[in-house]
Amino acid sequence: MKLVATYLIGLVFGLGIALSGMINPAKVLNFFDIAGTWDPSLAFVMGGALIVTAIGYRLAFRRGRPVLDRTFHLPKASAIDARLVGGSMIFGLGWGIAGFCPGGALPALGTGRGEVLLFVAALVAGILVTRAVLDRRAAAPRRA
C-alpha cells in the first residue's frame, strides 16, 4: 500500500509541475529575470504549494500518526551550518543557471529533451560524489 501511495503522490506532484509549466526552464528562468521578461507564475505555484502543505500538515498532525506508518519521521537537525548553507547555494546556482530544480526536472524527463537528461545525470553525479566525500570523511581517523 505504501508503494501505491508513493506512486500516486509522485504522479500528482509531477502532473502539478507539468500543468503549471514549471518543467519549462525558460519559464523558471524568466522568474529570476526581474529587470527583463519577469514571469511571476513561479511565485503563484510556490504560494499555492505552501497553502496546500500548511493545510496538509495541520490535518496530518491532528491525526496523531500517519495513515501508513506508526510514527511521523521528522528531521531532527535544526542547525544552520556550513553544509546547509553551501548546499542551498549550490542548489540556487544550479536552478538559476539551468532553470531546473530536482522536483521539476524529474517530471520533465518525460519530455525526452537532452538538457533535462544532462541535468538529471549531473544531479545524480553530484549526489554520488557528495556521498563518497562524506563517507570518506566519516571513515577517516580524527586528528586532535
From TrEMBL:
TM ranges: 42-61, 82-110, 116-134
Keyword terms of this UniProt record: Membrane, Transmembrane, Transmembrane helix
Pfam families linked to this entry: DUF6691
InterPro entries: DUF6691
Source superkingdom: Bacteria
Name of the protein in question: YeeE/YedE family protein
Organism listed in the record: Amaricoccus solimangrovi
